User: What shape does this take?
Amino acid sequence: MKWKVTLNFPLDWKLKLAFNLLPQRPTPAMISGGKWFRAFRLKGKLIPVIVEGLEEKGRPVIVFTTPRVDSQLKREITRMVFRLHGLADPSSLHRFMAGDQVLRRILRSLRGFARAGLMAAEPFEGLVKAVIQQQIAFRVAEHLTANLVERFGRHVCFQGLKVYGFPTPERLAEASIGQLKECGLSSRKAEYIREIAVKTVKGEIDLQSLQGKSVNEVMEVLTSLKGVGRWTAELFMATILGFNVVPADDLGVRRAASKYFFGGKLQPAEAVRRFLRERFGDYQRDVTVYLLMAYRLNL
Assistant: This one.
């Protein structure tokens, strides 16, 4: 079945998809021919979803293709896709950016980017991805994530595509350290991921409940887990929960902020954290994503 949602704000779908560094491999999302696709596990079923951005009568339209689903699942899939891609009205953000000389220049090239999205459909997926990304280049981390998805994730064939979902906690809890290492993970990361999976399955941690907690509460819960420090916790809060925080210890964030605001001189994490918070306030998360995108595109 197909359905579409017409947007009331500008969107450059091609630009939005360009934020993905590894479109050809399942992380579990993939991109082909301008279409973004992955599977979501909803109501105990793996549901493949294909999304594309089009234009009708001068307005951007998001088109969904799925097997037949009921109205409740249709609403949930729409909500998840919109959150993942940051498909929300950026008017207030753009007005804020227009008041800053540096951001105004970046905005001219990225006006159709909308808002910051998320890197995972649910918290367990996000925390596993955050652990994988520790201390390695993001592109490398995406390859390792794809290895994990191909080895332990489930897939369905739909519309001629192999559409993957992220491995469940149960699946990763059952995996051996050796099997996880075969995906390219270090021994420590394999141990951390398996322990997170086991604790999730046993009910010792409830990552879903973190959405309703404060930044300090989430930080306390996450850093109590083996292998999760401040950077991982901040990355999780920003890119999974959508909190207005920035993982300033991230080298990419530091490089982007330093290029555009410090003459290219690499700044320490705490200086970047303080600068982004004080200068951009409620918009620091969105602005950081725009800076990262501008840095990738060498604007």
User: Anything to note?
Assistant: The longest strand covers residues 45-56.
